[in-house]
Amino acid sequence: MWYQVGEAFATGQLKRILTDFEEDDLPVSIVHVEGRQANAKIWTFIDLAAEPWRANPYLQGEV
């Protein structure tokens, strides 16, 4: 959930507590069939779904 509230942590609006009980991060994957069966609609969806994640500095370890 860090990516959803990263800015609030960075600005001090939120404070992390009970850090001993935090779960490990889980990866997010988009699984699809590659090759002849993959079409432009699938690639468009993948690009749309992945873009906000790629652009989020809290997921990239930049903050």
Give an overview of the whole structure.
The chain is mostly helical and 63 residues long. The protein has one domain (2-55). It contains two helices and no strands. The chain has helices at residues 2-11, 40-55. It is elongated, with a radius of gyration of 16 Å. The model has no long low-confidence stretch (mean pLDDT 80).
Keywords for this entry:
mainly alpha, 2 helices, elongated, 63 residues, single chain
Overall outline = elongated
Helix and strand composition category = mainly alpha
- Helix % is 40-55%
Low-confidence stretches: none
DSSP, total strands: 0
Number of domains: 1
Mean pLDDT: 80
Q: Sheet with the most strands? A: none
- Radius of gyration equals 16 Å
H/E element string? HH
Overview in brief:
The chain is mostly helical and 63 residues long.
Write the layout of secondary structure elements.
Blueprint: H1 2-11, H2 40-55
